[in-house]
Amino acid sequence: MPANLPPEYHRIEATLREAKTLSEKIEISERLISVIPKHKGTEKLVALYKSKIAKLRDEMQRRPSTARRGPMLRIDKSGAGQVVIAGPPNSGKSSLVAALTGVAVEVADYPYTTREPSPFMMPFENVKIQLVDTPPVTAEFMEPWFPEMLKTSDAVVLVADLGDPECPGLLAEIISSLREKKVEFAAPSADVPPEKAPFLKRMLLAANKSDLDSSGEAFGELGALLDVPRERLAVSAATGLHVHELKRRIFGLLHVVRAHSKAPGKKAELDSPFTLRKGATVLDMARAVHKDFAERLDFARVWSKDGAIEGLRVNRDHVLNDEDVVELHI
């Protein structure tokens, strides 16, 4: 049976001959597999490229770490929290980041468009959350810095491709590989103790390309096949379905509260709240404003968002709720 390879295949194949590094050869080979038509006449060709990729990855593993370690960088946290966006090749991570942030992220219809981790700011109501778009990962190809970046982040969004029947298996392999590297996932509502925070991350599963899953069958299978604490949300970067809800749930992953400062006799500053961990007290709020406030704090008055509390005088141990207005008295 003839292969009937498209013109795009030949254009990409020409770049393979010019590739100099192992990572470039792997990337181009993955792109070739993605454009090869899937039928009996191309099975041997696909198997050939998969075998080449496996050999290239083995060679990378054998080389000295200084030659293959990749961008061992650290992205400083910004905003209300840092959330890593991760997933297998072509799952639509960058498209989803673009939909969430409104920033023109580089997007293409082939794997490995994203080569290095990149931070973007996602607006949510009156705060901004840092999203880190990462290169695609698989169990076989995971840069050494990737698990370390997860450990320093506040939470993770794992992106699934509902248009790819192999995606649940790929995600399961990634999760298993991360467990070997001491990174595990917890449900979005989990209370993670500080001592476990580097190794146990609250995770949300964003099932992207829901526009390709009109029956919802793939979404159901995704939940059945992944044996991890999870919360799923069907989204579509292409149509915008549930993108706003995804923003809300990403904020929920951070387990923070927003507190608004108010000077006595003046209106509250509602546009730039302080973000504090859940369970934070008036004293924590005072420390966030200025260290001298914490030392000299006498009492505070609190207004709640729902109006149930109106200027209630409280002591420094009072626990704050999201969107409380706090008037500090020193």
* CA distance, first residue to last residue: 83 Å
Secondary-structure content class: alpha/beta
CATH domain class name of the largest domain: Alpha Beta
Order of helices and strands: HHHHEHEEHEHEEHEHEEHHEEE
User: What's the Cα radius of gyration?
Assistant: 24 Å
Give the helix tally: 11
Please state the overall shape, judged from the principal axes of the Cα atoms: elongated
| Number of discrete domains | 3
Provide the CATH architecture of the largest domain: 3-Layer(aba) Sandwich
Helix coverage percent of residues?
25-40%
Tally the beta strands. Answer: 12
Percentage beta strand:
15-25%
User: How does the major sheet shape up?
Assistant: 7 strands, mixed
Ranges with pLDDT <50 over ≥5 residues?
Answer: 65-72
As for the CATH topology of the largest domain, it is Rossmann fold
- Please name the fourth-level CATH homologous superfamily of the largest domain: P-loop containing nucleotide triphosphate hydrolases
Mean pLDDT: 87
